[in-house]
Write a structure and sequence with these properties.
By secondary structure, the chain is mostly helical. Among the domains are: about 80 residues; about 100 residues; about 120 residues. The chain is about 55% helix and about 0% strand. InterPro entries: AP3_complex_dsu, ARM-like, ARM-type_fold, Clathrin/coatomer_adapt-like_N.
Length: about 475
């Protein structure tokens, strides 16, 4: 029937019920033959029915691990064939993949993880559902992990961490998901390459979480596409901005503390990523701390003062600004003198009749807003852009540029070094007498005149010494 299926698939599809019944046969070879026929019997109308039948056999305790792995591979093959042509609902397919990952098998975890990644990247409409399911999986994977399905779940954790990090904008509870990823990365038996993926996607989730907080505070400002919003004009808006800075500092300090646990990881990739992320977060804390200190030394926006009624000194408009000290040097002329603000205020009180110079300086909340916006723009730029699917054979379709010769040398190789042969006399000590060398040549040294070339000076091996017999010994041998 397998040969008939290649040329006449409709003839085999009529026996679908018989082939599905063969999956319950006691002979495993018959069950495997039936699995080979299923991929040619699938249509859009019967795919869900066939998959449910295969999943029901997976839950049977009588089948072995090999047949269980073949069942899972068959489910993936019949659903993904022809670029998921027969899949009507991708939400259903993602649910099936997660259900298969929780089974007691340890041979198909990589296959299921690749399918989850492929579906999330290729099908944009299913990303929100996939992200929600992966977040639930990360929060509950510790409770569902057993010795038999541990390896399979580890591979699915790889896919779940990447999906939640790449499409973090769909997360309903990003802070809880971040904590779940950090907890999962600290599993003792977790492979190193999966731990490194979790560590990196924690940073990716952090960058998108702080951008979402900034958008909530500023009324929907996107840090990557929108310019800095106008500074807040009310006291409540300025207080919300300062509360945002405190919130960002708290989250950054929390992530730094957790990431420091992986600085001494046994896996070099995880260790390198943890060190880089920790240093990056340290710089973020320094900049946010400086911005918060600037905001703390600056007054909140006040209503405009009434017009002056007299010209006897302009100090009345300054009010309590004489006590403000610019410790960070953020004046309009970028002065680094912390007492320059006090001196300027005192001189203005004596010389300037009106406080008109305050209108030319930006309000303190504007500096704070622009500073936070700049930090978040730099963080968001680390993972800007969208990942697009690439076919496995796409490289073959890229033509070679004109004039490119892949067999030609980019740089000519250096010439081989010239070998110089030393003469036999140079190999001897300088204090050796010449007649000694000539005397030795009579015993077995080949002279230069005999052979010449590279064989000059070689010593011939000495053969057996000749035996000389006396006359009495010769007579004795002859008599015998």
């Amino acid at each position: 029937m397998n040969k008939i299926l290649r040329h006449h698939p409709k003839s085999v599809q009529a026996h679908k019920d018989l082939i599905l019944a063969c999956l319950e046969d006691k002979d495993e070879s018959i069950r495997l033959r039936a699995l080979d026929l299923l991929h040619g019997m699938v249509t859009k109308t019967n795919l869900i029915e066939i998959v449910k039948s295969l999943v029901r056999h997976l839950n049977s305790p009588d089948i072995g691990n090999y047949f269980r792995s073949e069942l899972i591979s068959t489910i993936v093959r019949i659903c993904s064939q022809e670029n998921y042509h027969y899949v009507v609902s991708f939400e259903w397919y993602v649910s099936v993949l997660i259900e298969l990952a929780q089974l007691n098998t340890n041979r198909t975890g990589e296959l299921l993880a690749n399918q989850l990644l492929d579906v999330a990247v290729r099908v944009a409409s299913v990303r929100q559902f996939a992200v929600g399911q992966m977040a639930i999986f990360l929060r509950s994977c510790k409770s569902m992990m057993t010795h038999s399905n541990q390896a399979s779940l580890h591979d699915v954790i790889y896919a779940a961490a990447w999906i939640c990090g790449e499409y973090a904008g769909f997360l309903e509870e990003p802070r809880e998901t971040l904590e779940a990823m950090l907890e999962t990365a600290s599993f003792i038996d977790l492979p190193g390459h999966i731990q490194s993926v979790l560590v990196l996607n924690c940073l990716k989730l952090y960058c998108k979480l702080v951008a979402a907080w900034f958008a909530q505070t500023t009324g929907g400002c996107d840090v990557l596409s929108d310019p800095p919003p106008p500074p807040p004009e009310s006291i409540d808006a300025s207080a919300d901005l300062r509360a945002l800075v405190d919130r960002l500092l708290e989250l950054t300090a929390f992530l730094m503390d957790k990431i420091s646990l992986f600085v001494h990881s046994a896996n070099l990739e995880a260790q390198e990523r943890a060190v880089s992320i920790h240093q990056l977060l340290h710089l973020v804390v320094k900049r946010l701390t400086k911005l918060r200190a600037t905001a703390s030394t600056s007054p909140l926006p006040q209503p405009p003062p009434p017009p002056p009624t007299s010209t006897c000194g302009g100090g009345g408009g300054g009010g309590g600004d004489e006590d403000v000290v610019d410790l960070l040097g953020i004046d309009a002329d970028d002065s680094l003198d912390p007492l320059s603000a006090v001196r300027k205020t005192a001189s203005a009180a004596d010389d300037a009749p009106t406080p008109a110079t305050d209108s030319t300086q930006p309000p303190p909340s504007s500096d704070l807003l622009n500073g936070v916006h700049g930090v978040l723009v730099e963080l968001g730029g680390l993972f800007a852009g969208e990942v697009h699917p690439v076919a496995a054979k796409a490289q073959r379709k890229v033509p070679l540029p004109e004039g490119l010769d892949l067999d030609a040398w980019i740089n000519e190789p250096p010439p081989p070094p010239k070998l110089t042969l030393a003469s036999p006399s140079s190999l001897l000590p300088t204090d050796a007498p010449l007649d000694r060398h000539k005397k030795r040549s009579k015993k077995g040294v080949i002279g230069e005149s005999a052979t010449g070339g590279i064989f000059s000076g070689l010593v011939e091996p000495e053969g057996p010494k000749p035996v000389k017999l006396t006359q009495a010994e010769l007579d004795e041998v002859g008599s015998k």
